[in-house]
Amino acid sequence: MIVRSLNDIIGTERDVQAPTWSSRRLVLAKERVGFSLHDTVLYAGTETEMWYANHIEAVYCIAGTGELVNHETGETHQIAPGTMYLLDGHERHTLRAHTDVRTVCVFNPPCTGREVHDENGVYPLIIETGS
Questions:
Q1: What are the pLDDT digits (tens) for 7-33?
Q2: Sheet holding 47-51, edge to edge
Q3: Recorded E.C. number(s) (predicted)?
Q4: Domain 16-108, CATH class in plain words
């Protein structure tokens, strides 16, 4: 059994910062459970272009408001607490945060904690090796 709090993660290597977001990685590939779990905040007034070419991501908004643009279809969806979206088709997308948007994200395959978006908004596929 693993028990950890957000306070255990803040300020550690599991607390990953980027210009438009911060992601606290609660469960990572090294836990070997088949997914990773992240508490992510996208900062108010920012836009983040993403494309998870190597991962499936489920996102559940727990605070804040914004909008999600699906670059594959052109559709725009309002994001607010209680909204979930699933990137099951590796869709290119942009999240526009009107306020700080706090989300809980699940990735498969699991992230190692070292991933950051590249110039295309993609997380590289990093495989955790060892025990």
A1: 999 999 999 999 999 999 999 999 999
A2: 47-51, 92-97, 66-70, 76-79
A3: 4.2.1.108
A4: mainly beta
Task: Using DSSP bridges, classify how beta strands 15-17 and 56-63 pair: parallel, antiparallel or unpaired.
Answer: unpaired
Sequence ranges of the domains in the chain: 16-108
Which tokens belong to 97? Answer: 């945060």
What is the pairing mode between strands 56-63 and 84-87? antiparallel
Token duo for residue 129: 């090796």
Alpha carbons 61 and 51: distance in angstroms, whole number: 18
And the tokens for 29?
């590939």
Count of beta carbons in the 10 Å neighbourhood of residue 24: 20
The Cα 25–Cα 34 span in angstroms is: 14
The model carries a pTM of 0.89
